[in-house]
Amino acid sequence: LKASGFGATLTDVVRVTVPNTPGSLCAILRDLADAGISIEYLYNCPTHDSTSAIILKTDDTALCEKILSER
Q1: Which of 35, 56, 58, 60 lies in the 20 to 30 Å Cα band around 10?
Q2: CA gap 14, 59 in Å, rounded
Q3: Helix, strand, coil shares of the chain as percentages rounded to 5?
Q4: What is the pLDDT of residue 47?
């Protein structure tokens, strides 16, 4: 990419799968907020079933992974 004039960086993110139901993402974000984790950005990657893959960039990737693994 650099040779073609594009910039690129690697960033650690966390992927979490959530059901496509009202409030599913809210519950996850509430857990992260309660742990003091700030979200820098997130985006959705639709799947072929009744879930979505949410990609999160947080200020504490390790703690985010820990909180999500305990759900």
Answers
A1: 35
A2: 11
A3: 30, 30, 35
A4: 86
